[in-house]
Design goal:
The chain has 457 residues and is an alpha/beta fold. It contains 17 helices and 13 strands. The strands form 3 sheets. It has a 5-stranded parallel beta sheet, sandwiched between helices. Strands 2-1-3-4 form a 4-stranded parallel beta sheet, sandwiched between helices. Strands 6-5-7-8 form a 4-stranded parallel beta sheet, with helices on both faces. The chain is globular, with a radius of gyration of 23 Å. The protein binds iron/sulfur cluster (SF4).
Length: 457
């Protein structure tokens, strides 16, 4: 029992977090920045932070992640990192020739109080930013927020490039939130099927799920281009998927360039996908093609074919707020019972949304924002579940409590597939159901007495 010291009795804690269900802000900023074509993320802090953030992303995506660092030493830690960042900007544009450098801060540079905008402006004045190239930035102090906040801040930073010419270009901005490269591909596929021209940003498809070609490219083929980001200011509207990950950027575009926005849930599961497809249809004034209707029908068919295996099964879910909200809605829609729900990111709206989604259920749901894995484990000890859903860190709880475990979210360190197979939209819903069903049936095959051991579904 790896977690044998976790007691069943729950004691109120106000200051201590044990096994957080989140990680640090710059990881999100770095992931978002990789979704711009020709972008080199830059970590303004010490080398250790940058090494950790790169390795965290590499372990999840199983791809090399390039990023630069201001490499703070004692001097920069005391007097500030302006000289380091100016030197870094010059070196990076000279040596690696990116289209854009995306700077995020770290705990150290935030504590010193480095003013990134002022340093960026100084670099421009000194001619360190070549013509046609860009430096974007965001603040990511890790002692507040989480990787989700960092992602959101960097996406908002991207919208600072956008300008409005006063002439709409007929495109729709879609901000997908923190989803897998495979999910981004799926969103683009659906938009293409609907004949809706979209600008997806960030877009890590083709960046973190590229092929092994045998050739080295400093900057992979994928990613939203700088031109597209600039022109996002002329779009007819923005669909922001996820309040926590995407809404700030969409609202910034609305304020700055008068691009109206709608904030939706990330389209995991049937209902959230319906809302996304409907919003896309409405904003672009188009209709839903037969192929998408068919995919929806397949998901409905699978739900009805296998519903008896989900019915009244209890689940515990942890992860990022936008993802967890959609997953809870999906589970409730197939008559499962999500009873313990945790996000490591803070946000009262999260608790409110979960309560709304589960209000009609005939039992009390445990829900916590800013929560941790320790509390989740204690809840499970007090009321066991049939399924645990979340990132790799849940495997300790799953093993100790002998619970079927669906790896889903960030990070997944010990499995592959998430980069290539989407879990968004109708096709993604099929994949989620297939995985959940497989877990339940494997458990049934393991535990059923011989007299009821079934060959068929
Ligand atoms: S928490 Fe702060 S110091 Fe630690 S890796 Fe993240 S940014 Fe660096």
């Amino acid at each position: 029992m790896l977690l044998r010291h976790t007691p069943k009795e729950i004691t109120e804690r106000s200051a201590l977090v044990i096994n957080p269900a989140k990680t640090c802000q710059p990881i999100g900023a770095m992931y978002a920045a990789l979704g711009i074509h020709g972008c080199l993320p830059h970590s303004h802090g010490s080398q250790g932070c940058c090494a950790y953030h790169r390795s965290a992303l590499t372990k999840h995506y199983k791809e090399p992640v390039s990023a630069a660092t201001s490499s703070f030493t004692e001097g920069a830690s005391v007097f500030g990192g302006q000289a380091n960042l100016l030197q870094a900007i010059e070196n990076i544009f000279t040596v690696y020739e990116p289209e854009v450098i995306a700077v995020h801060t770290t705990c150290l540079s935030e504590t010193i109080g480095d003013d990134i905008k002022q340093i960026r402006d100084k670099a421009e004045k000194q001619g360190l930013i070549p013509k046609g190239k860009h430096v974007i930035y965001c603040n990511t102090p890790s002692y507040v927020g989480s990787h989700v906040t960092g992602f959101s801040n960097m996406v908002k930073g991207m919208t600072e490039l956008s300008t409005a010419t006063g002439k709409k270009n007929g495109k729709v901005n879609v901000i997908p939130g923190w989803v897998e490269p495979s999910d981004m591909e799926e969103i683009k596929r659906l938009a293409a099927l609907m004949n809706v021209p979209i600008t997806l940003f960030p877009d890590t498809s083709g960046v973190l799920n590229g092929p092994l070609s045998g050739e080295y490219h400093m900057f992979p083929e994928g990613g939203v281009t700088i031109k597209e980001l600039i022109e996002a200011g002329d779009a007819v509207g923005t669909l922001a998927l996820g309040e926590w990950c995407s809404a700030d950027a969409a609202r910034n575009l609305d304020t700055k360039c008068k691009v109206p926005c709608k904030v939706l849930d990330i389209p995991f599961g049937l209902a959230a996908t319906d809302r996304f497809i409907d919003a896309l249809r409405t904003i672009a004034g188009t209709s839903v093609p037969e192929e998408i209707t068919r995919e929806r029908g397949q998901l409905v068919d699978m739900i009805s074919d296998t519903h008896q295996y989900y019915y009244k099964k209890k689940a515990a879910i942890y992860g990022d707020p936008d993802q967890v909200i959609s997953m809870v809605e999906f589970l409730v829609s197939i008559d499962m019972c999500p009873i313990h729900i945790v996000t490591g990111t803070k946000g009262k709206k999260f608790v409110k949304r979960i309560k709304e989604l589960t209000a009609h259920l005939p039992y009390e749901v445990n829900v916590k924002d800013g929560g941790d894995m320790f509390l989740l484990h204690q809840w499970i000890k007090n009321e066991p579940v049939d399924l645990l859903i979340g990132n790799t860190y849940g495997k300790y709880i799953a093993r100790d409590e002998d619970i079927p475990f669906l790896r889903w979210g960030f990070p997944i360190l010990d499995r592959v597939g998430h980069q290539y197979f989407p879990t968004v939209a109708y096709k993604g819903g099929l994949r989620l159901l297939e995985k959940i069903l497989g877990l339940f049936l494997d458990r049934k095959d393991r535990d059923d007495p011989e007299t009821v051991f079934e060959l068929t579904l």
